[in-house]
């Protein structure tokens, strides 16, 4: 990784795209607060664990949609301009981390 | 699953235990807010994906520590009182969801 | 981990139990050979990747069923004889590896 | 998925590439046989579970290397010829299955 780092995406997200991702993250933030409350109220451990799994699934979903957009824009652009290999290796690296 | 649901853990968490879990969840909540900011500021997709992986890892860590406590208390208690199988099947079910 | 290692399960598997697990593993072995053939025949990468995912899922399924049996027998036995904590910590350790 | 299926990779694997993948798969096949033997010999469940995790990790490693090659060849080719979106959606789909 590392050599191919940008500060910004090649194609900036539209306001609408941003808002959708942020809304999903706000919902996830709310779910994390929900778990704090469950712990405070001494709720049954298995119910808390089920909630944590749900948050993980929601986060992965956001991740996959960002990954798809990233591949369609940044990686594709890199491939067209001959910088494909670095972009692809960086992508595979992040996929590996994701699938842990 | 389902038949063995409790509303509360057999051994209530101490205030100190609760506080530790809540502190970890507050940190995770902050990380989720951090990602929202990254999206707003149009930060590089791969950096955002790396952050999402980090949150997933942190959530799993909390999950595993709750799972250990649950097994040491609730499941152990169930085993000693002859209700072990239901508690274990419920545990395995939640582990499966977790490892997705 | 480590301190609580046995050479054999507390309750030996019946011949029937063994045979079922072995049959599932033989099928998985066949699937792995199938992928080798796909690679030799230059089959489409995505089809090969789908097959690898299927094998991973099948292996996890075998793993979860062994895990359930292990918890119902070895771990339960350990809990009843007061050695529960070591057995549970060992179990959680292996669950962590599994969910990677 | 589905609409973008090829029977063969755009760039055929070299004999050397094929042999490397096949060797790794043969080793995995041997590991699966090893687990069968462990079950037959009534070995300790946790040791078997550790072995299953190791096979899963090895399979994922093969998968990621195929995925990298696929993206560098087939997906890149598709992007250059304007069929990128279908190829990328197919790729993301298989990544999702992989990270389960």
Automatic annotation (TrEMBL), chains A, B, C, D:
Record Pfam families: Trns_repr_metal
Annotated signal peptide: none
UniProt keyword list: DNA-binding
Domain of life: Bacteria
Keyword DNA-binding: yes
GO MF entry, a single one: DNA binding
Protein name in UniProt: DNA-binding FrmR family transcriptional regulator
Species for this entry: Virgibacillus alimentarius
